[in-house]
Design brief:
The protein is mostly helical. The chain has 16 helices and two strands. The chain is 75% helix and 2% strand. The longest helix is centred in the N-terminal third of the chain and has 32 residues. The chain is globular, with a radius of gyration of 22 Å.
Length: 445
């Protein structure tokens, strides 16, 4: 993964991502403790609602913001989003009511809905080599795992000398440093379509390409599986650790570090694996194993029983590894499924549609856990994970190929696309991507 970091622009962007996520990780721990301070045993429901509001901002606003930002400089969009996030994080220590958490989370995540798709779509233009881009995806996964590993460890140390309200200051610093690093980079200009598309088409283009591509429909189904089990971990870990195990604040950091450590290990191993194994052959078996592990933990924790603390941490680490194995290859699938000018739109579509899965799973994790118990909540979420696996197998066939033979009966012979494959006749084959000349996948009519 060192080769990707030899690119100075990417190295600076990666550093910005790491710093911002470390700050976000501190905020996650502080927010969990703030929710527990305000709501006690109902903290899981509060966090479930807060995360649901976060997903509403992502799902509802991401495509709109992406369409607006398409004509704006990438650097300005990312710096502006970081500054807004820093301002909102600065207000969080002064929260005294649950509803205030909800308002601030909505504002903060609206800014994130602007930043993240633009950031993700920029990386393939910075790293054009496929191996380097795969390394960047693993590094990105590692950066997200630092949020679950280093941030809780740092939070545990800071909590020895400050109250959890002070952790929000780290979030502010993270966003400000991220903005400063982005300001130092020289980003490639985003590819522009020769045709200036109206706003309405720009708003829906990413989702139309996404949902017309079989491998991406399969990816969306696998995102549902990852979100189902991931939501349980993120929402209910604080309840399991504090209320069920009766442990202190630092133990929550240990639990989240176990989850993040497993995820990091998988991300480190994946670049080598993906050189020899197709994405589907990694992602689908990992999703099957993830749902099976969820059912195992539900059985072990049924009723008043709980597995030993060491067993709990081991299961959390395995869940983290399988979760990472599902999500890390996603960028490779998105990169091969859109032309350069459509990548911001398709990354925004992935951002919105994948978070729509979390919009379903976060409330289930919080409210079902509160009403019927954590084991029942995990059984429900595990069932949703099974549905995602079955849908992925149905939508994304095991024998799917990137190069697809097809024809264009409605294109004239002098069309530029037909001229490019002159000599092959009406039927020709190439890496199939949904665009203006290829609006429907051949196997679907």
């Amino acid at each position: 993964m060192i080769r990707a970091l030899s690119n100075r622009t990417y190295a600076t962007l990666f550093t910005a991502q790491v710093v911002a996520l470390l700050g976000t990780g501190l905020m996650t721990i502080a927010l969990s403790l703030l929710a527990y301070d305000l709501a006690g045993d109902a903290a899981g429901a509060v966090l479930g609602t807060a995360f649901t509001i976060k997903m509403l901002a992502y799902v509802g606003l991401s495509p709109v913001l992406a369409a607006i930002a398409e004509r704006l400089p990438r650097k300005a969009v990312m710096i502006g989003a970081d500054l807004v996030r820093a301002a909102v994080a600065l207000a969080l220590p002064f929260v005294s009511e649950v509803w205030q958490i909800y308002v601030l989370i909505f504002l903060l995540q609206t800014a994130s809905a602007s930043f993240t798709p633009v950031f993700q779509a920029t990386i393939p233009d910075v790293l054009t080599d496929e191996d380097e881009y795969t390394q960047a995806l693993s590094l990105s996964r590692l950066a997200y795992d630092l949020e679950n590993l280093l941030s809780p460890s740092l939070a545990a140390l800071l909590l020895l000398v400050i109250s959890f309200h002070g952790l929000f200051v780290g979030t502010v610093v993270g966003f400000l440093v991220s903005a400063a690093l982005v300001a130092q980079t020289s980003l490639p200009r985003s590819a522009q379509s020769a045709e200036k598309r109206p706003f309405r088409e720009r708003l829906t283009r990413g989702s139309r390409i996404y949902l017309a591509t079989p491998r991406l429909r399969g990816l969306l189904a696998l995102n549902l599986t990852a979100a189902a089990i991931g939501a349980f971990v993120l929402v209910n870990s604080v309840v399991l650790v504090r209320a069920e195990y009766g442990l202190g604040e630092r133990a929550l950091g240990v639990a989240m570090a176990a989850f993040g450590g497993g995820s990091m290990l998988a991300a480190i191993l994946l670049p080598r694996v993906l050189r020899r194994v197709r994405e589907r052959d990694v992602m689908v078996p990992s999703a099957i194993a993830l749902t099976a592990l969820a059912f195992v933990f539900a059985a072990l924790s049924w009723g008043a029983s709980l597995p030993a603390w060491g067993v709990f941490l081991t299961i959390w680490a395995l869940i983290g590894a399988l979760y990472s194995a599902i999500l890390t290859p996603s960028g490779r699938l998105l990169r091969i499924s859109a032309h350069s000018e459509d990548r911001p739109a398709i990354f925004a579509a992935q951002f919105a549609l994948s978070h729509a899965c979390w919009l379903v799973t976060y409330p289930l994790a919080g409210w079902v856990g509160k009403a019927a118990g954590l084991s029942v909540s995990l059984l429900v979420l595990g069932g949703l994970g099974v549905f995602g696996v079955l849908a992925a197998i149905r939508f994304w066939p095991a024998n799917a190929e990137r190069i697809v033979e097809h024809s264009h009966p409605h294109l004239p012979s002098d069309h530029p696309h037909m001229k490019a494959y002159l000599g092959q006749g009406q039927n020709h084959a190439h890496a199939f991507i949904i665009d203006d000349e290829h609006k429907v996948w051949p196997t679907h009519g």
